[in-house]
Amino acid sequence: GDKAFAEFLTDEIKEERKIQKHKSLPKMSGGWELEVHGTEAKLLRKVAGEKITVTFNINNSIPPSVEEEEEETRGQQKPDEQEPDLTSTPNFVVEVIKDDTKQTLVLDCHYPEDEVGQEGEDESDIFTIREVSFQPTGESDWKETNYTLNTDSLDWALYDHLMDFLADRGVDNTFADELIELSTALEHQEYIKFLEDLKSFVKCQ
Question: Segment Disordered: which positions (predicted)?
Answer without folding.
Answer: 59-89
